[in-house]
Q: What sequence folds into this?
């Protein structure tokens, strides 16, 4: 906590990593600033050193190789919404990014990395990436590490934000014919989500062969609803299947959030509603090659 | 938007003239209070109580004083040694209530979460905030009193030491024989209406910058203040300085809605700090601090007595207003107005209304758009909806049956008000027509589709405006000066101010017509106690009524002067001189013209010739004082504090998703009577703004607390106001009944609509949910609350089926 913080803007990932390794704490990585600046302005955070990672070229760009889309951590929401590779290979990510609040100004600055590292339970991008099986590449003290986003979300020692840098997000391209949907329930136009669900599904002759489902904004961690979709495999998407799914999801919400986005009881019930709606929309979209 | 085709284009009045003050804020050139920075500027940071109720055991400021850059630290006790308690804007004692001593910072005890406890003044904002964390305060936390009705229990802890109860004021609004009305009623409908705490959030938060004037040993306060002159008076009392040594300068205001009416601790506190440091001291409110200012929280227990045909015979209401901790701001008065405005637009004579204003450990209220009249509309309109439902009547029909009829005006209300004019039934019918009422009813009759239920809501709001409370600085009159320079340019100075509503443009339109000049010749100055005539500022939809009315009178006087001079120059009788849009001409003599500028220059330079017959300069100050305000009590001790009674009908169609409880507003229409319309764009802007206030309040805006009284709503992430996607385009129709006593028939236009539109939404949602047996009169009707009510009704249904 300092009254007179310093500011650094390294030019390369190596330089940034070295800088972070040499600092003893009190430093903070700043990307688009959309998450962190309100905290700082509000006095909730008083860092000694700001490390602006805006100059790290390694954290930019979107490319595809071997069926994996690699997205730089500095990619802003607007790029996710408009990029051709993302639109073709990861349409659910583009959609989730467009559903984030804040409008154009925020979308022009808010980065993918910042959105993930914030680990905010109400944010929209992580549920979509988790449903897509994303991995992440981190650099800490000069060492590069790759891990699944799901594992990262449960880690507490990753050091992101002050010691480690999230470099890229790696997402398997969605297979042709995959049905997908991102469902977001919010109290009003300007509100954060109260319950979100991301679903993907593959159908063969009307039967579900594979499905993923995550539910966000209802608990302090994003819920992987794999257990709830398990029963759908091999089944057709019928009214009974939909009802089953809706009933199973609330049980996965052990400690629902209860805040100004809605009471815990309602959030828990809504986990089922958004899950069912997302899966229904994903099924409707599936197979349209 | 309404049809503006029937306008008289020889006059500015009535036309959608572009605002003269609108450009500066849009291009970023407006100078708001926070934009003023003076040499030697210091910044204050206020330390606020984290507890709702506590005794202050010890405050140690030494840590803060050690921080380099800190100039001064003050706690409540030290401030109290320098200045007096804050003078109440509307002293409850004047109306028979209890008046608490309100200090700028807590002394010994804190009354609510967020109450100022200490202040740090430093060379920059960050240092002040940093140092503030080094102030150590030891509190003995007390059990907070949070619910109004619970606070009136005999064993409730007393919030204000020395009081015998938490009731600040209790007052009846009674007329006729309500007990007899209830005795003969065919139906008695009981409805409890719980109006939650919601706020008004101007985008510009409050800011005060006090500059010590060493030369005169006085102070200038740059302030986000709606009422500069009355604020100056309060400061003079609190600081113990004559008003002549104090200047309040309120520059451009970025929204106010009542919140910037004074009595706030920071006003006098900044002046004191400027005096103690000899340097300018500024405080700018954070959004979190702005959200501390409460309003509207009321619980009504309504009873309507109706005959078999749905005619309302009598009304009872016991209502409790939770005004939070004592404050010198005028917020509590909202509760009084709620009762005074009963029974609104309905021709009910036998009423028994009792107001109970309760002090609790929640943060204090300040005035908020609607000023209690929105709560009257909510309570009444929700109760009437319940009555319609229980009697099996159409929601519109029951209202049409009970309205005061157009030919009954002026109408003496059972609480003593004298309604000037209106056609309430006509307004409802117009709004129903505008929305396509029958079409929606037919669509509703088709039944729900995909779990989405449609409901239609009708509501009405009567909004007394332009108020004057005896013995307070809430005055009914105001003054303006019109000054014409030798070059013919015109400056209007008014005692009224603008919170950004566009009233300077409306006033300029009036003056342009009355004086006979073009709009671009006019500048308007407001909000400065040193240059403007003494005035009462902005509240209660008054600024165009009394600001425009007084400016018109002043303009007429100046016009008489210039016409005299022009007549001398033309050498014709005054009656033959015409003046229109800056050009003088002579009746019947084509081609003989003089410009306004030529005549003005001739006047200033011809004091001993052409201007001999007039008093120079070309200036006049006039006052407009509506003649129908009556402060001498009638035989029942009642007064009529309002000159104008705006009114409007609201009809909305909402769709409820019963799976989630989420509501969507599909259509909205309003028929609005604000008397003569000076500028339809301004009026419709205000009316639409009020509707979005109402919709937001009815559906999602809420200030929440935890069980220990800590406020949970701290940012716009939690306090979410409507976005454009939350509202359909509003169909606005005018249904104007000119006010017989105001200038040109004006009524207030800025305040009305919050309660009527909120009630229409609530009624529409409940109307939609009739098939599910849901009736929810606890606001807000947010998705979780609606869903909860649906679940409860289902469980009730299952239980009943099982029995
Ligand atoms: C008005 C508003 C509304 C919003 N609504 C939504 C919404 O509805 N849904 C939603 O999903 N989001 C929403 N957001 C959040 C927004 O998407 C995030 O704030 C944004 O993505 C954060 O990115 P940033 O680059 O601004 O992060 P920053 O604020 O710069 O950083 C955020 C955090 O991440 C760390 N960090 C950033 N980049 C890296 C990196 N590469 N490596 C390691 N650590 C890093 C920082 O240290 C910091 O702790 C909203 C934001 C605003 C302002």
A:
């Amino acid at each position: 906590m300092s009254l007179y913080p310093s500011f650094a803007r390294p030019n390369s990932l190596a330089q940034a990593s070295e800088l972070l390794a040499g600092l003893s704490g009190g430093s903070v990585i700043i990307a688009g600033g959309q998450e962190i600046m309100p905290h700082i302005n509000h006095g909730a955070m008083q860092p000694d050193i700001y490390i602006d990672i805006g100059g790290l070229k390694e954290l930019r760009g979107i490319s595809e190789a071997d069926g994996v889309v690699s997205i730089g951590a500095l990619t802003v929401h607007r790029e996710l919404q408009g990029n051709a590779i993302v639109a073709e290979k990861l349409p659910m990510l583009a959609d989730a990014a467009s559903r984030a609040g804040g409008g154009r100004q925020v979308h022009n600055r808010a980065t993918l990395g910042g959105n993930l590292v914030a680990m905010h339970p109400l944010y929209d991008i992580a549920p979509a990436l988790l449903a897509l099986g994303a991995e992440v590449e981190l650099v800490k003290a000069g060492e590069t590490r790759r891990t699944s986003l799901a594992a990262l979300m449960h880690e507490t020692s990753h050091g992101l934000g002050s010691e480690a840098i999230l470099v890229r997000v790696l997402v398997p391209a969605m297979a042709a014919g995959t049905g997908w949907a991102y469902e977001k329930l919010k109290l009003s136009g300007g509100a954060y989500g109260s319950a979100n669900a991301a679903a993907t599904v593959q159908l063969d002759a009307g039967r579900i062969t594979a499905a993923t489902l995550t539910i966000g904004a209802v608990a302090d961690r994003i819920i992987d609803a794999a257990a709830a979709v398990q029963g759908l495999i091999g089944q057709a998407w019928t009214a009974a299947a939909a009802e089953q799914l809706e009933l199973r999801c609330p049980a996965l919400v052990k400690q629902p959030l209860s805040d100004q986005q809605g009471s815990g009881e309602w959030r828990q019930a809504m986990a089922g509603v958004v899950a069912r709606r997302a899966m229904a929309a994903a099924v409707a979209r599936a197979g349209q090659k | 938007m309404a049809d503006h085709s029937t306008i008289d284009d020889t006059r500015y009045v009535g036309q959608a003239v572009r605002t003269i003050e609108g450009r500066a804020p849009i291009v970023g050139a407006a100078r708001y209070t926070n934009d003023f920075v003076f040499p030697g500027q210091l910044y204050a940071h206020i330390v606020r109580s984290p507890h709702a109720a506590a005794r202050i055991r010890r405050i140690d400021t030494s840590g803060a004083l050690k921080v380099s850059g800190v100039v001064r630290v003050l706690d409540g006790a030290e401030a109290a040694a320098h200045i007096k308690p804050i003078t109440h804007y509307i002293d409850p004692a004047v109306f028979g209530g209890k008046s608490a001593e309100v200090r700028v910072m807590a002394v010994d005890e804190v009354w609510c979460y967020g109450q100022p406890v200490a202040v740090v003044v430093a060379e920059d904002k960050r240092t002040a905030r940093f140092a503030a964390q080094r102030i150590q305060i030891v509190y003995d936390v007390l059990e907070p009193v949070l619910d109004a009705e619970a606070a009136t229990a005999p064993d409730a802890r007393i919030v204000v030491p020395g009081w015998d109860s938490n009731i600040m004021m209790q007052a009846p609004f009674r007329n006729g024989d309500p007990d007899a009305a209830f005795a003969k009623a065919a139906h008695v409908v009981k409805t409890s209406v719980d109006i939650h705490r919601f706020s008004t959030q101007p985008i510009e938060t409050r800011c005060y910058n006090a500059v010590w004037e060493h030369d005169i040993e006085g102070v200038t306060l740059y302030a986000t203040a709606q009422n500069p002159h009355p604020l100056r008076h309060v400061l003079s009392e609190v600081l113990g300085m004559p008003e002549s040594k104090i200047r309040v300068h309120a520059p451009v205001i970025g929204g106010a809605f009542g919140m910037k009416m004074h009595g706030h601790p920071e006003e006098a506190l900044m002046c004191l700090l400027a005096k103690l440091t000899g340097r300018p001291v500024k405080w700018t409110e954070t959004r979190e601090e702005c959200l501390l200012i409460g309003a509207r929280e009321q619980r009504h227990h309504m009873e309507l007595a109706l005959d078999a045909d749905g005619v309302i015979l009598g009304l009872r209401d016991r209502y409790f207003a939770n005004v939070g901790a004592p404050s010198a701001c005028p917020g509590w008065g909202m509760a009084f107005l709620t009762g005074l405005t009963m029974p609104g637009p309905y021709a009910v004579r036998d009423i028994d209304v009792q107001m109970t204003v309760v002090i609790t450990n929640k943060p204090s209220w300040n005035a908020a758009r609607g000023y209690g009249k929105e709560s009257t509309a909510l309570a009444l309109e929700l109760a009437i909806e319940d009555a319609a439902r229980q009697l099996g009547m159409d929601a519109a029909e029951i209202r049409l049956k009970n309205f005061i009829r157009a030919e009954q005006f002026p109408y003496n209300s059972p609480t003593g008000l004298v309604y000037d004019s209106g056609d309430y039934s006509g307004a409802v019918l117009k709004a129903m027509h505008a929305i396509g009422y029958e079409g929606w009813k037919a669509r509703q009759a088709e039944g729900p589709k995909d779990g989405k239920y449609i409901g239609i809501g009708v509501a009405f709001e009567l909004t007394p405006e332009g108020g004057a409370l005896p013995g307070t600085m809430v005055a009914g009159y105001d003054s303006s000066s019109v000054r014409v320079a030798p070059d013919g340019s015109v400056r209007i100075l008014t005692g009224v101010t603008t919170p950004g509503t566009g009233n300077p443009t409306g006033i300029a339109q009036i003056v342009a017509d009355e004086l006979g000049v073009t709009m671009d010749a006019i500048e308007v100055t407001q909000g400065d106690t040193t240059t403007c005539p003494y005035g009462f500022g902005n509240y209660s939809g008054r600024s165009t009524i009394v600001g425009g009315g007084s400016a018109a009178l002043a303009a007429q006087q100046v016009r008489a002067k210039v016409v005299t001079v022009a007549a001398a120059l033309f050498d014709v009788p005054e009656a033959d001189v015409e003046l229109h849009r800056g050009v003088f001409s002579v009746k019947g003599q084509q081609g003989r013209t003089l410009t306004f500028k030529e005549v003005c220059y001739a006047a200033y330079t011809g004091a001993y010739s052409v201007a001999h017959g007039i008093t120079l300069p070309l200036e006049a100050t006039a006052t407009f004082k509506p003649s129908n305000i009556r402060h001498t009590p009638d035989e029942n001790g009642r007064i009529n504090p309002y000159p104008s009674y705006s009114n409007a009908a609201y009809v909305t169609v909402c769709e409820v998703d019963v799976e989630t409880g989420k509501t969507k507003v599909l259509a909205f229409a309003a028929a609005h009577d604000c008397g003569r319309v000076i500028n339809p764009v301004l009026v419709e802007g205000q009316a639409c703004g009020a509707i979005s206030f109402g919709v937001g309040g009815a559906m999602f805006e809420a200030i929440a607390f935890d069980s220990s009284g800590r406020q949970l709503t701290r940012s716009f992430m939690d306090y979410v106001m409507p976005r454009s996607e939350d509202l359909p385009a509003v169909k606005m129709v005018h249904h104007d009944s000119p006010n017989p006593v105001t200038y040109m028939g004006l009524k207030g236009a800025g305040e009305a609509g919050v309660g009527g539109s909120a009630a229409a939404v609530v009624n529409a949602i409940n109307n939609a949910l009739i098939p599910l047996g849901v009736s929810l009169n606890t606001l807000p009707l947010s998705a979780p609350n609606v869903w909860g009510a649906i679940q409860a009704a289902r469980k009730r249904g299952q239980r009943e089926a099982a029995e």
